[in-house]
Amino acid sequence: MINEDLRKNIQSREWEQYWSGKWSFTTASYFLYYYTHLMKAQMGEGFTTVAAISREGHTTCFFDKSDRKRFGEHLVKQVLADSTFIPRFCKNLKQRADHFSTVMTRLKQQPAIRPDDFNIFIQEFYAYTGPHISPRHIIDFLPEDKQQTYFSDLKDVRLYTEHVYADTEQLMQQWATQISEKLGLAPTHVLCLTREEVEHALESQNVPNHEILQERFHCSALIAHDEICEVATGEDAISIEQLLAGIDSKTSELSGTIAYAGNVRGHARIVLNPSDVSDFQEGDILVSTMTRPEFLPLMKKAAGIVTDLGGLLCHAAIVARELRKPTIIGTENATKIFKDGDTIEIDSDRAQVRKISLPL
């Protein structure tokens, strides 16, 4: 059963899905530690509580909306006080991305990633994470009359740094494969260790048993708050996900934000990992938590695009405008409400997506 204090903590907050994709439980553990322990010292504001749901190597991260608002307004205050802030920030972020990429490339080319190398990687990961999430927060909380002024610069840096976190997970996968034999674990189970367990494993090779790690791999929740990170699995994790996402399984209609206008009907294709999809058809409607560069071939074939996550600088919004595909972003739960093969309709007049029973 979920600890009652934890349940109340989750229920007392208004949650927003912020990122989702092929990141492991372990990577999420490091993200959550940074957001709640280190970000305030680096960026001037941090988050009090952050949650993540991880299933078989795919993780969705949830931010408390009040935390996100406070961080965004903190950044916007600096933007409005100094007209040179955005150009300087964007230049610095590109330099950080280049440096972090150079470090990761060097480590990937080594015969083995030693414990000291892994620690260097993690410190670089921490140094990069706060700046990386800043452009989306700036554009989301800027006054509307200022958004167009800075949109081009922020879009440019967003696209320039798009690859970094995919590269991060590739390095985590490589490290897990190398260390798995030493720890007596499958690589997938190495990536089900918490940040603290990784540190202990590197020192003493003590790790949780197979059953615990398999439960985490199947379905787990991480909640970072009050200097701790709690982990739940199984039915408890599913219950936490329902609290975080506010899922109403009876609904057949969702609202979102129009990224590109247009009305279209098609078969829903729920895609979390594009590398797993081989039968996406022209005219299907792509439904995903969020898109990334590797989704582009599917986006080109799709009649329309629907995402759980949103924002002016999200990948789906940028690409939808370029491809001129009807797109609704920020529906929050499209991947959970709609099923593969459902006939759905994107209605940009109402900024809605709905399941329909009529034949195509």
Task: Enumerate the strands of the largest sheet in spatial order, edge to edge or round the barrel.
Answer: 6-13-12-8-9-10-11-7
**What is the overall pLDDT average?**
94
Radius of gyration: 20 Å
Helix content: 40-55%
* Helical run tally: 14
Give a verbal description of the structure:
This protein starts with a helix and ends in a 5-residue tail after the last strand. Strand 9, helix 12 (296-301) and strand 10 (304-307) form a beta-alpha-beta unit. It has helices spanning 4-11, 25-43, 65-81, 85-109, 115-141, 144-160, 164-183, 187-190, 195-204, 210-218, 234-245, 296-301, 315-323, 334-337, and strands at 15-21, 49-55, 58-64, 220-225, 228-233, 253-255, 257-260, 263-270, 285-288, 304-307, 327-329, 343-347, 352-355. It is of the alpha+beta class and 360 residues long. The radius of gyration is 20 Å and the shape is globular. The model has no long low-confidence stretch (mean pLDDT 94). The protein folds into two domains: 4-244, no CATH class; 253-355, 3-Layer(bba) Sandwich (Glucose Oxidase, domain 1), CATH 3.50.30.10. The strands form two sheets. The chain has an eight-stranded mixed beta sheet. The chain has 14 helices and 13 strands.
List keywords for this structure.
eight-stranded mixed beta sheet, alpha+beta, Glucose Oxidase, domain 1, 19% strand, 2 domains, 360 residues, five-stranded antiparallel beta sheet
